């Protein structure tokens, strides 16, 4: 079957609504003027009901006084849609060579440190350690190191890892549809790629050089991923670069657009807050509080009942222990964010410091103690053609 | 004795249980036991079907329950067929609950791909129980290609909304030559009872039990509701009328003669 529908352009949608930064003041004014009565209206809407205005009300300062009510609703909705389960996954970092200059990132090309890239054999050795911890869901992560970690490398690695893992996804530099198609054929069924920030000016400021400096190209990535037939598309904004409330609005419009036009791919949200990283000055960023993060997660859950929601080991243990009851459906455990980190053989630099350093077994025990089933396997390599 | 018969196998219980969304395997097993169910469906995506020691598989006593693998997550006929073959090769079970759901949000079944997969799987010797929308024509076509049951939904899966498709379900039941198992959307025992009262042969429940505060107790409640609904159906319930009909405004004068 050929799909002949012509889609509107996400770039145009964000620009028309002023969500690429062009309507910053108008949105901030609207947020500040949101009333208690409006919050009550938004809370009375059916669970999962999304219109931009409802989300705006739920993330407004006025809604901060209703956070417990939002939490109750989000908890009920997540319980109904996902049950008493949380999926577990582990990231496997392949390389920290990079051609980009992202100001906030430990792998920034201007930073001076010994760079590491894993050979296929080294990657498999890392994956073995991860598999022994019980993981079936693996996320392959790499900086923009196309010369080494290219499509062929990833496809070869995936075709071997498929024997051991039931679900494979990548979080790597942006590719073209044909490249994503090759990865999908090799057994990779999901791609996570963050816009980092939807605010165009901020984006340009923090991505001064390299292939990633092009805002519009970056914005087209999730569509390329969907067109390749990927099942899971992870999107998100790197929280701390720009006003989180405006990022949330743009992120939701992006998700809504993808859900409508690429209806066979599941969209999931991540909530990465900026973390300390080697040689990165964090004083320039506007970090958001735990309360803001929780409000963002709850508001998105109340607008998107079935979206997957991921929280990584960037976040502290005490917070993660609560978030699994507030909408989060998937979390990483025991993560290393440096290539070779699991075997400890390379002693390489990590992308950022993780916070929750508990082992996968400890995370599983924490979930069980809260009456939640840690789910290691929720996919099967048999879905993919062999 | 009133038995449910699927592909020549006889079952006393008319309640089938799904195994997703439970807080642990122990809670799941308690709920299954309390339900009196004899058929338990398991998502192939969730278990390692080739591994006898898989947590969830090991928890289900195969001497007591018929394990019904399902193809949840499949987006196409090809994927569903591949998963079914894998499950049969690993376990010897040739029953499959066929689910093809290309939309990841409402998980509504794809009629075109489901029919395609059903036809191929039946030819390969599978006992096929297809999950479908409440579509009477699709239901007939599936029976024509030889499925063992049809499993129309009451409302979207996991939604707990009850019998939103009641009118279409009644047509499916009236026209069926195979057991009709109402699947998906039953949020309360009363919903299950209603499905049985209108003549469904069985119901399948998962979310309403797994996400209840006390799953085993809710499971038991569903057991009784299914029995009550079935008994009511067999007893020939009195016809329902919206209005009382005591008077005869047009012909009352005849009595005066």
Which descriptors would you attach to this protein?
heterodimer, A: 386 residues, alpha/beta, TIM Barrel, eight-stranded parallel β-barrel, 9 strands, B: 257 residues, five-stranded parallel β-sheet, three-stranded parallel β-sheet, 9 helices, globular
What does this protein structure show overall?
The complex is a heterodimer of chains A (386) and B (257). Chain A is α/β, with parallel strands linked by helices and 386 residues long. Chain A has a single domain (10-383), classed as Aldolase class I (TIM Barrel). Helices cover 39% and strands 11% of the residues of chain A. Chain A has 15 helices and 9 strands. Chain A has an 8-stranded parallel barrel with strand order 1-2-3-4-5-6-7-8. In chain A, strand 5 (232-235), helix 12 and strand 6 (266-270) form a beta-alpha-beta unit. In chain A, helix 3 (36-44) packs across helix 4, helix 5 crosses helix 13 and helix 7 (151-161) packs parallel to helix 8. The two termini of chain A are 22 Å apart. Chain B has one domain: TIM Barrel (Alpha-Beta Barrel), CATH 3.20.20. Chain B has helices spanning 25-35, 55-59, 77-91, 111-123, 136-145, 166-175, 189-197, 207-210, 215-235; strands spanning 4-6, 9-11, 15-18, 39-43, 66-70, 95-98, 127-132, 151-152, 181-183, 202-205. Helix content of chain B is 38%, strand content 15%. Chain B is an alpha/beta fold and 257 residues long. Chain B has a 5-stranded parallel β-sheet. A 3-stranded parallel β-sheet of chain B has the order 6-7-8. The mean pLDDT of chain B is 90. Chain B starts with a strand and ends in a 22-residue tail after the last helix. The interface between A and B is medium-sized, with 29 and 31 residues.
């Amino acid at each position: 079957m050929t799909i002949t529908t012509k889609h509107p352009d996400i770039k145009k949608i964000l620009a028309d609504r002023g969500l690429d930064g062009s309507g910053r003041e108008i949105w901030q004014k609207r947020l500040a003027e949101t009333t208690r009565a409006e919050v009550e209206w938004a809370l009375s809407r059916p669970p999962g009901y999304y219109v931009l205005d409802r989300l705006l009300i739920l993330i407004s300062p006025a809604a901060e006084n209703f956070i417990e009510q939002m939490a109750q609703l989000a908890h009920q909705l997540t319980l109904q849609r996902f049950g008493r389960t949380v999926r577990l996954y582990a990231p496997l970092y392949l390389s920290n060579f990079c051609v980009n200059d992202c100001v906030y990132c430990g792998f920034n090309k201007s930073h001076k440190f010994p760079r590491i890239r894993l050979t296929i054999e080294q990657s498999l050795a890392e994956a073995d350690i991860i598999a022994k911890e019980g993981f079936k869901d693996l996320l392959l992560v790499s900086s923009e190191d196309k010369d080494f970690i290219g499509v062929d490398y990833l496809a070869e690695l995936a075709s071997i890892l498929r024997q051991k893992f039931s679900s494979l996804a990548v979080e790597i530099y942006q590719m073209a549809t044909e490249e994503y198609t090759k990865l999908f054929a090799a057994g990779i069924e999901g791609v996570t790629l963050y816009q980092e920030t939807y605010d165009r000016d901020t984006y340009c400021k923090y991505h001064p050089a390299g292939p990633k400096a092009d805002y519009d190209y970056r914005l087209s990535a999730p569509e390329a991923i969907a067109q390749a037939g990927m099942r899971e598309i992870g999107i998100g904004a790197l929280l701390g670069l720009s006003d989180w409330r405006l990022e949330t609005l743009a992120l939701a419009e992006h998700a809504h657009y993808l859900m409508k036009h690429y209806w066979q791919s599941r969209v999931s949200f991540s909530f990465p807050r900026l973390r300390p990283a080697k040689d990165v000055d964090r004083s320039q960023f506007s970090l958001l509080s735990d309360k803001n993060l929780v409000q963002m997660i709850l508001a998105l859950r109340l607008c998107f009942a079935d979206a997957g929601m991921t929280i990584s080991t960037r976040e502290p243990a005490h917070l993660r222990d609560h978030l699994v009851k507030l909408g989060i459906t998937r979390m990483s455990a025991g993560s290393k964010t440096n290539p070779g980190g699991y075997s400890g053989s390379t002693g390489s630099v990590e992308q950022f410091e993780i916070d929750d350093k508990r082992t996968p077994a400890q995370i599983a025990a924490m979930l069980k103690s809260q009456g939640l089933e840690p789910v290691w396997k929720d996919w099967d390599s048999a879905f993919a053609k062999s | 004795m009133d038995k449910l018969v699927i592909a020549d196998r006889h079952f006393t219980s008319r309640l089938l249980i799904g195994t997703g969304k439970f807080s642990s395997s122990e809670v799941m097993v308690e709920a299954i036991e309390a339900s009196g169910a004899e058929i338990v469906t398991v998502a192939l995506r969730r278990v390692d079907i080739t591994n006898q020691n898989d947590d969830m598989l090991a928890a289900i006593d195969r001497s007591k329950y018929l394990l019904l693998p399902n193809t949840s997550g499949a987006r196409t006929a090809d994927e569903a067929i591949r998963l079914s073959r894998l499950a049969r090769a690993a376990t010897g079970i040739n029953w499959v609950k066929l689910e093809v759901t290309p939309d990841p949000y409402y998980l509504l079944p794809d009629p075109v791909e489901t029919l395609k997969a059903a036809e191929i799987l039946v030819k390969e010797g599978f006992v096929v129980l297809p999950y479908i929308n409440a579509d009477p024509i699709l239901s007939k076509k599936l029976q024509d290609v030889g499925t063992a049951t049809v499993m129309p939904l009451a409302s979207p899966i996991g939604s707990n909304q009850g019998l939103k498709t009641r009118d279409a379900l009644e047509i499916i039941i009236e026209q069926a030559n195979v057991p009709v198992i109402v699947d998906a959307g039953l949020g309360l025992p009363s919903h299950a009872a209603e499905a049985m009262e209108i003549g469904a042969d069985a119901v399948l429940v998962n979310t309403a039990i797994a996400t209840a505060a006390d799953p085993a107790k809710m499971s038991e409640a569903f057991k009784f509701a299914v029995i009550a609904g079935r008994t009511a159906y067999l007893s020939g319930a009195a016809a329902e009328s919206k209005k009382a009909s005591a008077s005869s405004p047009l012909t009352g004068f005849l009595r005066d003669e």
